[in-house]
Design brief:
Order of helices and strands: HHHHEEHHHHHHH
Radius of gyration: 18 Å
Low-confidence stretches: none
Largest sheet: 2 strands, antiparallel
Length: about 270
């Protein structure tokens, strides 16, 4: 579910807007670090969550407006620019928060475990499953059942026609990029108490997110959801059974799916 929340943001940015954002993992890492700082200072997990998502959303909108807007539909310059930003943000995070792994403090109300089918299961993990399901439903309704979602999809298919209707497409793209960045930060805050935050996490998360989006199909929230389950389970079983081949087990689902269905699980032909 954490992987889905993160990948949903990349689905909006890469799958729908066709912006190759290599710095997506940086949004995850910075969001987690901001939440860690706010929670440590205030003791409020909710405040840390809001602060992280708001700050990274603003950062994402600034990056899109100032750096990426002039590179519209230029994939290679986008990839190089955002890759550079990834290294800049990685060094910035290392400078501010240091190189030691940290855990975002977990909300006290979600500590402990409860019995599930005869097994004690951590309550916080059950909460994450619920949050992931709700996020998937809300994103689906947002894209498929709202006017703004229709504008986003129409702008991807026929940008000139949408501009001709008087809609400010550059502003729409900026807002969508900000939402995608906020979702990455949301994933960083949710995953912070479990996975931890450390230098290099941004690279690992970015790799997983791109695999999920590719396997699920570009622009498909449903595909991202299914691919997150597939890639997440394969990665965890791979680490448990074949720790020396953990990276290999991540790539295998992508290779198999693309060989059988090049557009991904739910991608449009």
């Amino acid at each position: 579910m954490v992987l889905f929340v993160l990948s949903a943001g990349l689905t909006l940015i890469f799958g729908l807007m066709h912006i190759v954002n290599m710095a997506h993992g940086s949004f995850y890492l910075l969001g987690g670090y901001i939440a860690f700082t706010v929670v440590r200072a205030t003791g409020s997990f909710a405040l840390g969550l809001v602060a992280a998502c708001a700050a990274i959303m603003v950062l994402g909108m600034l990056i899109q407006r100032l750096c990426l807007q002039g590179l519209h539909k230029q994939e290679l310059p986008q990839a190089l620019l955002t890759l550079g930003l990834l290294f800049v943000f990685a060094d910035l995070a290392f400078w501010i928060w240091g190189g030691n792994p940290v855990l975002v403090p977990m909300p006290a109300v979600f500590e402990g475990s409860i019995p599930v089918l005869g097994v004690r299961y951590p309550l916080y993990r059950l909460v994450l499953i619920g949050v992931g399901l709700v996020t998937a439903l809300l994103l689906y309704l947002f894209l498929e059942r709202t006017r703004f979602g229709a504008v986003i999809r129409a702008g991807m298919d026929d940008e000139e026609m949408v501009r001709g209707m008087g809609i400010n497409i550059p502003l729409v793209f900026t807002v969508v990029f900000g939402i995608g960045a906020a979702l990455a930060a949301f994933g960083g805050v949710l995953g912070g108490p479990l996975l931890g935050l450390f230098p290099g996490a941004d690279f690992e998360i970015a790799l997983l997110a791109f695999v999920v989006v590719t396997v699920g199909g570009l622009g498909s929230i449903k595909g991202a959801f299914l691919a997150s389950l597939l890639v997440g389970l394969v990665e965890n079983f791979g680490i448990a059974w074949f720790p020396q081949l953990s990276l290999f087990t991540i790539i295998v689902p992508m290779v198999i799916v693309l060989a059988l269905r090049p557009t991904g699980l739910m991608g449009r032909v």
